[in-house]
Task: structure prediction
Amino acid sequence: MRKNSVSREKEVQPLGLLIDNHGIMATATKAPAKKATPKASTDNAEQSNPAVSVQPILDQQKSAPAPLQRFGTVSQRLPIGLDESVRQESVDMLNLLLADTCSLRDMYKKHHWQVVGPTFYQLHLLYDKHYEEQDALIDQIAERIQILGGIAVAMAADIAETTSIPRPPRDREEAPIQVSRLLEAHQIILKNCHEFAKRADDSGDDGTNDLIVSNVMRTNELQVWFVSEHVVDTPLAQAE
Result:
């Protein structure tokens, strides 16, 4: 009977009071009300800056004004202590050297992909190593041209028109032919290096002289050594 009585008493308790089975009263607490989530505004004017558009401005090249600088000219923007005539001569020489270096670099990559034969592994790796070294020279030459106030030749079509290195065929060739083409290209570059370094020295352009001698010339001479040894006809198994 006591149990049923307590149950009825619990049913008639006012809001906020609870009585457990032992007759102890406790105050009931309400669960906190959930905060209403604010609705996202659909008004774009309140969400973004009307003075700024995120839409890219496309096709500007179709109505471009005159270029900032014409190819073949030099600018005196940087105060490096060289006259315009000296800069112009050095830029012309370096652009030829740049085009030839681009051609040699790409020839190394062509041969890296296409080489076959017993020395495949050695040449495959050597060609790629020389490719990376020539690529580093390209950046150094181009930056020197820009420092002098000139414009570096850059696009493949322009390089093809400028280079003095013969164009190799699209075909795959034997490794000795590949090496011979590379050595011919190196020799063209090195002959120009000797002439250009002397002219830069005579005109007082020490920076260009140093780049040609310390970087371009020495890198190409070292590569000539490594490549040339692959076409020395020595016996492999028995001395003669």
Remarks:
- Residues 5-15 have pLDDT under 50 and may be disordered.
- Helices lie at 2-11, 44-47, 84-114, 120-147, 156-162, 175-203, 206-228.
